[in-house]
Amino acid sequence: MDYDQAVELFDPALGLEVHVELNTASKLFCGCANRFSGPPNSRTCPVCLGLPGSLPVVNARAVESAIRIGLALNCQIARQCCFARKNYFYPDMTKDFQTSQYDEPICFDGRVAVELAGQVFDVEIERAHLEEDAGQLLHQGATGRIQGADYSLVDYNRAGTPLVEIVTRPITGTGAQAPQVARAYVAWLRDQLRALGVSDVRMEQGSLRCDANLSLSPKGSGVLGTRTETKNVNSLRSIERALGYEIRRQAAILADGGRVVQETRHWHEEGTTSPGRSKEQAEDYRYFPEPDLPQLRPDPEWVESLRRRLPEDPRARVARLQAEWGLTDLEMRDVLGAEALDVVEATVAAGVSPAAARKWWLTELLRFANAAGLELAAVPMTPAQVAAVQALVDSGRLNDKLARQVTEAVLAGEGEPDQIVARRGLALVSDTAQLQAAVERAVAACPQAAESVRQGKAQAVGAIIGAAMRELGGQGDAAQVRQLILETLA
Ligand code: ZN
Ligand code: MN
Q1: 472 CA to centre of ligand 2 in angstroms
Q2: CA of 29 to the centre of ligand 1 (A)
Q3: Is the pTM of this model over 0.85?
Q4: Are 74 and 110 in contact (CB under 8 A)?
Q5: What does the pLDDT read at residue 280?
Q6: Which ligand approaches the C-alpha of residue 100 most closely?
Q7: What is the pLDDT of residue 279?
Q8: Most exposed among 36, 44, 214, 376, judged by the fewest C-beta atoms under 10 Å?
């Protein structure tokens, strides 16, 4: 069934579960390093391997991050809460349970406003709880999937990574825009988490993962239908596409008089979902309070101090910077599209005009980043170095062309801009006698142009400027050279 027809007949209801990997130095319950990758099983210990007799200790920074996330989502923060064992038998967790939270999440009852093309959608947050991640299974065989694998390898590096799982209440009333609202919510969340500094929020590396629940109800009935949960969708675009697909798939089943099966589904980048396991019910996990960990009782005064120190709302920050920098909507969209907001802000803070800062990051440096497959923030040139180059331009020691050469040298790891200018002799010629001599040679080399200028045809000066710049090896200030030629021919 096509999409327009599907949303004509049915109202979609969304439910989004987002797992955020926290960027704490160590894991949630042990001292093992918490970072991406590493040789298999190199970051493990008796606690995250679940060996008998080992005891977990909760990571205070992870608790703090979870509370800060909850505050940013306008949640209530529990006065006391506990961890719970979520029991299941699968080799990605040697303990046969995941330490999570169940009936007492640390954050609950939040609400956020998500904007989409000028329209605001209210998203209610049911809970945001702390839990540990599981290890990874690597299925060896032709497909790389468990079906048809010859054997599987286990890597427990990820086991025990601190996660915050953020769960929305059903989001209704979005109609045909449901997939875009879901995408806008996750984008909003990603921006918030980045501003909080609690996670790398790299969807492609799995530090932000989204499970998208969707059900349909007959138009106007207001009754929630049977939902499916599409697991681990790992890009904003895929969230939108996966939900669009599920709306069409479920609508076709329902319109045909069939029933949607409650199950988890897998998203495939070619544009479809396929069934996974049928969804467990909570009782299948036999949750019970974790006996090895004490209750969490965050001090209300501490929580309030965390609230006071929350960063500026990312959307408000964008609006403020756009006004401060005097950029049009289009110019600001370019900055955001290139993820250049932080570096431009830091460059402006280092003394560069907003226009020049924006120009550097969206031209030379963006080109370099794209060619090298890097994010702008990872380009080997700092905002301070950009400011140093721009200061050389502003003081008349470099023209734009030389400045680009200096920038290339900085990017190639040749050192600081000042050192590069000195070592390569890149500064503009400022010696007046040398400039005058170059101008005179250029005038002599272009007698016809010189005659035209003498007769008042100012546009003829271009040829002489070109000749003088060649005499100067490109290291002349074009405006200054032009002025000297006109004075010479006056
Ligand atoms: Zn460990
Ligand atoms: Mn979870």
Answers
A1: 66
A2: 7
A3: no
A4: yes
A5: 64
A6: 2
A7: 59
A8: 36
Nearest to 73 by CA among 117, 23, 18, 29: 18
* Nearest alpha carbon to residue 159 among 19, 44, 39, 24: 44
Which tokens belong to 416?
């600081």
Helix (H, G, I), strand (E, B) or coil at 288: strand
Ligand 1 centre distance from Cα of residue 269 (Å)? 34
* DSSP H/E element including 355: helix 354-362
pLDDT of residue 385: 96
Contact 230, 265 (CB under 8 A): yes
Between the CA of 19 and the centroid of ligand 2 the distance, in Å, is 6
Q: How far is CA 56 from CA 31, 47, 99, 283, 488, in A?
A: 10, 6, 10, 25, 83
**Among positive and negative, which fits the CA dihedral 422, 397, 445, 441?**
negative
Q: Are 473 and 490 in contact (CB under 8 A)?
A: no
Closest C-alpha to 291, from 18, 56, 17: 56
Q: Is 258 left (phi over 0), alpha (psi -120 to 50) or beta?
A: beta
In single-letter form, the type of residue at position 182 comes to A
**What distance in angstroms lies between residue 12's CA and the mean position of ligand 2's atoms?**
23
Phi and psi, residue 43, nearest 5°: -115, 70
Distance in Å, CA 483 to ligand 2 centroid: 70
Structure tokens at 421: 């200018």
Nearest bound ligand to the CA of residue 84: 2
Distance 51 CA to ligand 1 centre (A): 10
Does the CA dihedral 3-4-7-8 come out positive or negative?
A: negative
Answer positive or negative: Cα dihedral of 345, 346, 351, 356: negative
Cα(43)–Cα(26) distance, integer angstroms: 10
Per the CB < 8 A criterion, the answer to whether 429 and 476 are in contact is yes
E strands present in 314-365? none
**pLDDT averaged per 10 residues, the chain (length 490):** 95 97 98 90 96 96 98 98 95 94 97 90 97 94 83 95 98 96 95 94 89 95 92 91 97 95 92 80 86 97 98 92 95 90 95 95 94 88 96 89 92 93 82 87 90 86 90 83 87
Name the residues around ion ligand 2, CB cutoff 5 A.
165
Amino acid 434: pLDDT:
85
Q: Which tens digits make up the pLDDT trace of 328-362?
A: 999 999 998 888 999 999 999 999 999 999 999 99
293 CA distance to ligand 1 centroid (A)? Answer: 16
Domains in the chain (CATH in brackets) are 3-303 (no CATH), 312-424 (no CATH), 432-489 (1.10.10)
Centroid of ligand 1 to alpha carbon of 292 (angstroms)? 16
For residue 196, the CA-to-ligand 2 centroid distance in Å is 21
Ligand 2 center to 131 CA (angstroms):
7
Cα 241 from Cα 237, distance rounded (Å): 6
Report pLDDT digits (tens) over 408-423.
Answer: 999 999 999 999 988 8
